[in-house]
Amino acid sequence: MPQIDQLSESWFAVSQLFWLAIVFGAVFFIIGLYMLPKVEATVDARDRKIAEDLASAKAARDAADGLEEDYRTGTNRVRGDAQGLIGKAKDKAAVDTAKLVAKADAAIADKMAAAEGAIATARSQALAEIEQVASDSASALVARLSGAKISASDTSGAVKAALNHG
Amino acid sequence: MALAEPAKLDPMHQFAVQPIAHLFDIGGRGVYLTNSAVWMMIAGLLLWIFMLGGMKRQLVPGRWQMAVEGFTGFIASMMTANIGPEGRKYTPYIFSLFMFILFANIVGMIPLGLFGIHPFTATSHFTITGVLAILSFSIVLIVGFWKHKLHFFSLFVPHGTPVWLLPLIPPIEFVSFMVRPFSLGLRLFVAMTAGHVLLEVFSSFIIDSLHAGPVLGVPISLASMALMVGISALELLVAGIQAYVFALLTSLYLNDAVNLH
Questions:
Q1: Which of B17, B180, B55, B40 is nearest to A39 (CA)?
Q2: Fewer CB within 10 Å of terminal CB in chain B, N or C?
Q3: Chain A nearest CA to B6, separation (Å)
């Protein structure tokens, strides 16, 4: 076995140890102490970045949720206010309308009463004129037919009786 | 030729460290550039190139960066799972250990022998794995005594030990504690060596049986080849598992030192 046999050669152990010290020393100092921390720092930085990004994403989502909640409560409140205003306006409009209608009704009733009065007077006047005209024409007819003069009171009495019999 | 051939098929020959160039002397002993050193450097270099992919530091990682971050995350989560938040301090060492062993194991598995280049598995030598194990064990001792001073010895008296077992348990615990660096280093060395020996033995079956003629040679070669494919896959698994076990056990021992059970 050369591993054991060569131990008796004077250069063997010294050379092996020398080169192991050189190579493993270089590996330890360059790779272990210089490169490894850099690689680990990269990994740590990435992990930290991912954690930070996740945290900020979560915060943003929470903020968005809060905004949505605010928006929802806001719209609900405003909608409630609007409903109240609409109800009030409706009530007010109904009351106003009722008042106006009542006023208009009263005005119309007044006008109708006045008109009916006018119609009644006009009718009675017309009737009186018709009597007058009828008695005049009746006395004129009688005078033309018989030549007799009849007093106005007689003809008007006869016309009244005829009109009344109608 | 007759002398050279057995050496070529010697399944242990692949573990021989070949000196390439003499560099200098330390205490009268020559320090050589060896094939072991070259392949350790190649493993380290490949590891560095792999890690470069993780240095793009993009917020949205590409595949390569994901792979690097997968490895670092794997070790980091192992440390926090075994030791707790304090374990992150020791991640650089455990990560270096895991990745170096993993790359050394896998580099040794690359079938570059087809092109005449023979990869050397540095982790198949206990001079390498043993030193790494002693390094881990030393860190455990240093951290343990640093954090808990002499109270660290309470590690040898587990919670709930009955009084009448007190003379017995601490020596057993002490022995099991002291065996740790050996088991740690030997496990990796043995696993790597055994796998590579197995592959070499099956490949020598192919050559030897073909020397005996096609009637015997073809079926034996085909069977050996099929087995080698399976064993290669298994060895790749072992390469990963052994690196993981080494890092996992080191982290568990560190947990003892940091948290005292």
A1: B55
A2: N
A3: 15
Inter-chain contact B69–A43, Cβ cutoff 8 Å?
Answer: yes
Q: Which of B110, B105, B125 is nearest to B18 (CA)?
A: B125
Angle between helices B169-211 and B214-259 (to 10 degrees): 160
- This complex has an ipTM of 0.88
Q: Which residues of B touch A34 (CB under 8 A)?
A: none
State the pLDDT at residue B6: 46
Six-digit token string for A16:
């092996």
Q: Give the per-residue pLDDT at B21.
A: 87
Contact B72 A39 (CB under 8 A): yes
Give the sign of the dihedral formed by CA A77, CA A78, CA A81, CA A82.
Answer: negative
Alpha-carbon distance A37 to A52, whole Å?
22
Q: How confident is the model at residue B8 (pLDDT cuts 50, 70, 90)?
A: low
Residue length, chain B?
261
Q: Which residue of A has its CA nearest to B95?
A: A32
The continuous run of DSSP H or E covering A46 comes out as helix A36-146
Residue B21: strand pairing partners? B33
Cβ-Cβ contacts under 8 Å for A42 (sequence gap 6 or more): B54, B57, B58, B61, B65, B69
Tokens standing for residue B31: 């320090």
Residue B118: pLDDT over 90: no
Across the interface, whether the CB atoms of A19 and B76 are under 8 A apart is answered: no
B23: enclosing H helix or E strand:
strand B19-26
Q: Which of B28, B92, B193 sits opposite A33 (nearest CB)?
A: B92
For residue B48, give the nearest of A18, A19, A30 by CB distance.
A30
In three-state secondary structure terms, B57 is coil
Side-chain half-sphere of A93: how many Cα atoms within 13 Å? 6
Taking the CA of residue A11 and the nearest CA in chain B, the distance in Å comes to 5
Q: Do A31 and B96 touch (CB under 8 A)?
A: yes
For the cut 70, the answer to whether the pLDDT of residue B3 exceeds it is no
Confidence check: pLDDT of B241 > 50:
yes
Q: What average pLDDT does this structure show over B16-44?
A: 89
